[in-house]
Write a structure and sequence with these properties.
Blueprint lengths: L10 H26 L5 H10 L17 H12 L3 H20 L4 H14 L3 E4 L17 E4 L3 E11 L7 E8 L5 E7 L5 E4 L13 E11 L3 E4 H7 L9 H23 L13 H30 L8 H26 L9 H10 L8 H13 L1
Parallel strand pairs: 1-4, 2-4
Antiparallel strand pairs: 2-3, 3-7, 4-5, 5-8, 6-7
This protein binds flavin-adenine dinucleotide (FAD).
Length: about 375
Amino acid sequence: MDLYKPFIQNERQKKLVDLAGELADAFSKRGEVYDREDRFPYENFNDLKKSGYGKLSLPKEYGGEEITLYELVMIQERLATGDAATALSIGWHLGGLMEVTETRTWDEGIFKELCEEIVTNNALINRAATEPATGSPTRGGLPQTKAVKTEDGWMVTGRKSFTSMARVLDYSLVSAVIGDTEEKGFFLVNHSMEGVSVEETWDTISMKGTGSDDLVLTNVRLPASSLVERDSTTSIGNVLPKAWLLHIPACYIGAAVAARNYAIQFAKDYSPNSLPGPIKDVPEVQRKIGEIELELFKARQILYSVADKWVREPAKRADMASELASVKHVVTNSVFHIVDTAMRIVGSQSLFRSNPMQRYYRDVRAGLHNPPMDDMVIGMLANNALK
Ligand SMILES: Cc1cc2nc3c(=O)[nH]c(=O)nc-3n(C[C@H](O)[C@H](O)[C@H](O)COP(=O)(O)OP(=O)(O)OC[C@H]3O[C@@H](n4cnc5c(N)ncnc54)[C@H](O)[C@@H]3O)c2cc1C
């Protein structure tokens, strides 16, 4: 069954899903080796660049396709069926750019220049917002990275942890405290600048291929124009919730779909000599498959319906924060159940390092620690209810 058919609304979306599918199929062949050998998936990024995937969320007037949130989640889900780690990394790039494309809170000249770099040279960008002392920036901690005013701009010093795909980034949006204030801003940092380096600290069991290393900034001299977002101005210009973060649940559904596909194929193929045929005919295996389908249906319906509402009803966007957060909570918890049930179908083969199941199992775990975290979602819902 084509899992995307129920959600594809037009020919453009079909082409986009096909593009993501071609990339995903190439990635899935390499996933196991990258994971086992702890290698960064450079080849996947080369493929993404060759296909023009990184410019999809840019404005049309600057050479992009201006994909919608609905299209973003669909292609990211499909991409993640091949390799969730690469999908999450490129999701930060596409999603962050989608936000600027929609809100236009940056200086237009700077944004245009960045778009040119992406269209012409396939440049990659990500937000570097996490630090060991703050934990998740969504909890409100002030960064220890400082931007000091100089005669012609800024000098930025600090260390960022969890910077996905740091090794292949051309630009980062680095959060820092602005001068002597207590205000946070985001600085556009070109990685070829003096004082910018990457320390390969990413040694995890989950989403290994994101290479979410430390980004180190040592007295990096930036032009005045590099301060592209300030908390005070973005809160005036952009009151909308960060809907682009739906690329996160989309990515983890992709990993769950890969587990589901593997388990179904396994059930068709595995024929122990205690049975007359493959285990797909065993009622308990069929029950588990049905359970997976039901859970996947719930997770995908909620993801796609909320993304669709965002696209079709812009007037309601400002009130959608709790719906968007709830999608993240429901999906990232659903995918545990899907992957767990799929592993029970496959049995102990799912524990072998050469079997992709154990990678899906480890990868979906990371969804808990991407924003918004479960406790924040539940707190938000409770506050709304008690208002
Ligand atoms: C695969 C992956 C890729 C990532 N990529 C990026 C990236 O590209 N860029 C980036 O900036 N970040 C990235 N992150 C970082 C991510 O967004 C979080 O910032 C990071 O995971 C830190 O989360 P934490 O749970 O360790 O920290 P914390 O938020 O500190 O949470 C740890 C524990 O402390 C508790 N806690 C901490 N503070 C509070 C509080 N104020 N109130 C209540 N409880 C609190 C939490 O409940 C939790 O139990 C990535 C993370 C992962 C896993």
